[in-house]
Amino acid sequence: MSARVRLVELAAGSATDAEAIDRVMGAAFDPRYGEAWTRSQCVGILAMPGVWLTLARVEGAVVGFALSRAIMDEAELLLIAVDPVHARTGIGATLLRATIAECRSRGVKRLHLEVRANNSAVALYAAHGFRRAGVRRSYYRNRAGETFDAHTYALSLE
Predict the structure, then answer these.
(1) CB pairs under 8 A, 24+ apart, for 128-134?
(2) To the nearest whole percent, how much of the chain has pLDDT over 90?
(3) What is the pLDDT of residues 140-157, one digit of tens each?
(4) All domains of the chain in start order, with CATH
């Protein structure tokens, strides 16, 4: 039996994609950690200069996204998520590589991100050259009031 290969298409997104990214975030981010943004936060930041959204689609459906912003020669990967149905299929890595490529095209010299300390995505970031730069104690707070540390990472693009 052969597995069906699904093509991943990357495309620029906009505020009109807020419902789709909200759905992916809802599926991908465990509410125990308080990491997901609200739809209005996503729409609000998309209106700011230097912000871009990259969508990953499979058979026309949005299954992942990366939200980033660049200011002068530095950038930050604000959010990246893949629907768990498509986890571990390379979509997250594809989105990360697309973000790095876009940063380079914008003249970015350093790309930053922050991630919950025990998030399994740390392995993906390390595999792409990100190095730990710091710790934000009790950065995430969930609805129950529990807090979780965040680690900051950076990637030199020089």
Answers:
(1) 128/93, 128/96, 128/97, 128/100, 128/155, 129/155, 129/156, 130/154, 130/155, 131/155
(2) 82
(3) 888 888 899 999 999 999
(4) 8-111 (3.40.630.30)
